[in-house]
Amino acid sequence: MRTVRTDPARRRLLGRALSLAAAVAPFGLAFGVLCTQAGLHPMTALGFSVLVFTGSAQFAAVAVLGSGGTVVAAVLAGLLLNVRCLAFGLVMAPVFPRQWAHRALASLLMIDESMAVGTSIDAPGLRWFGYLAGGLGVFVSWNLSTLAGAVLVPGTGTFVTDLGIDATIPAAFLALLWPRLTDPVQRAIAAIGGAIALALVPLLPAGVPIIASAAAVPLVLWTRPAGAAT
Amino acid sequence: MSAALVTLLVLAAGTYGLKAAGPMLLGRREVPPAVERAAALLPAALLAALVVTSTATAGRAAVVDARLPALLAAAVLLWLRAPFVVVVVGAAATAAAVRAVAG
């Protein structure tokens, strides 16, 4: 039977999974800090990372809550960011185990990274291995770093602003956005989405301007010349 | 139950629904390519909105404070392909420095 030790393909997949796990750790730390700043208990922070387990949605929901937004606004912002998980599920479904219960469990690990490692190779059996390795590696790293961030950084006093820790949150969002800016369509969507949100902040309750920025997607797609959109 | 806990539970349930729909429906229902494309593009708008609101707002007001130069520093570091840790520390250091100087 092939093991990780004897199979170079599996070793490569494991390597990709481990580097992704290392890459998400600083984001997890930043999320933990964001939760503390928003007044969340460290166990709630950990709960987000274990149960929601998608970085951008977690950041969005807690950012909305922290700025005084409603539960509805926070949940909507998070769900909008997670709509892409639906597409991931359809991509990975053919290589998932047959049993219903196993598929249900495996879906818990459906995130950018498990999808990325899983689709980086063609053989179905190796896709499944890649998905598992990516998902589990990130799961451990993400949750440990969230806990560390939530527990190690004090939320009270001027500690956070004196050290500029509150500025790490916009930086984290920008880092999440950055790889998408190489695509001109996403650049346009980002510019318009940001403008919509900023314009609406004085007019709408906290969190709603963020959801409204989603209008940038149809705006950009429908005003592009036919045939230019890919 | 606190607002945070309710948010957590509802978001977790909704997110799991999105994640499991594909494998549980066994791909019998295809997502139309247009919907799939739109879903892939949503994060660009939402993340940009989050960058803007977390940098330049305080409650319902648009403000300019130490977070703006910190964001610019982060952008420069990202452009220079610095690791995330460096980007985050650079942003924090910039904000702290601006606050220390400007009082």
For the residues shown, what is the average pLDDT of chain A?
Answer: 84
Task: Write down the domain tally of chain B.
Answer: 3
In whole angstroms, how far apart are the ends of chain B? 40 Å
Number of strands of chain B: 2
Q: Can you summarize the main beta sheet of chain B?
A: 2 strands, antiparallel
Q: Please state the overall shape of chain B, judged from the principal axes of the Cα atoms.
A: elongated
- Secondary structure: number of strands of chain A: 0
Question: What are the SSEs and their pairings?
Answer:
The complex is a heterodimer of chains A (230) and B (103).
Chain A: H1 8-37, H2 42-52, H3 55-66, H4 71-82, H5 84-92, H6 100-106, H7 112-118, H8 124-152, H9 159-162, H10 168-177, H11 184-200, H12 208-212, H13 216-223
Helix pairs in contact in A: 1-2, 1-3, 1-7, 1-8, 2-8, 3-4, 7-8, 11-13
Chain B: H1 3-24, H2 33-56, E1 57-58, E2 61-62, H3 67-79, H4 84-102
Antiparallel strand pairs in B: 1-2
Helix pairs in contact in B: 3-4
Primary descriptors:
heterodimer; A: 230 residues; mainly alpha; 13 helices; B: 103 residues; 3 domains; two-stranded antiparallel sheet; 4 helices; 2 strands
Written description of the protein model:
The complex is a heterodimer of chains A (230) and B (103). Chain A has 230 residues and is mainly alpha-helical. Chain A has a domain at 8-157. Helix content of chain A is 70%, strand content 0%. Chain A contains 13 helices and no strands. Chain A has helices spanning 8-37, 42-52, 55-66, 71-82, 84-92, 100-106, 112-118, 124-152, 159-162, 168-177, 184-200, 208-212, 216-223. In chain A, helix 1 packs antiparallel against helix 7 and helix 1 packs parallel to helix 8 (124-152). Chain B is built from 4 helices and 2 strands. Chain B is elongated, with a radius of gyration of 20 Å. In chain B, helix 3 (67-79) runs antiparallel to helix 4 (84-102). In chain B, a hairpin with a 2-residue loop joins strand 1 (57-58) and strand 2 (61-62). Chain B has helices at residues 3-24, 33-56, 67-79, 84-102; strands spanning 57-58, 61-62. A two-stranded antiparallel ribbon of chain B has the order 1-2. With 103 residues, chain B is mainly α. The model of chain B has no long low-confidence stretch (mean pLDDT 86). Chain B has 3 domains: 1-30; 32-63; 64-103, no CATH class. The longest helix of chain B has 24 residues, at 33-56. The chains are: A mainly alpha (230), B mainly alpha (103). Chains A and B meet through helix 1, helix 2, helix 3, helix 4 and helix 5 of A and helix 1, helix 2, strand 2, helix 3 and helix 4 of B.
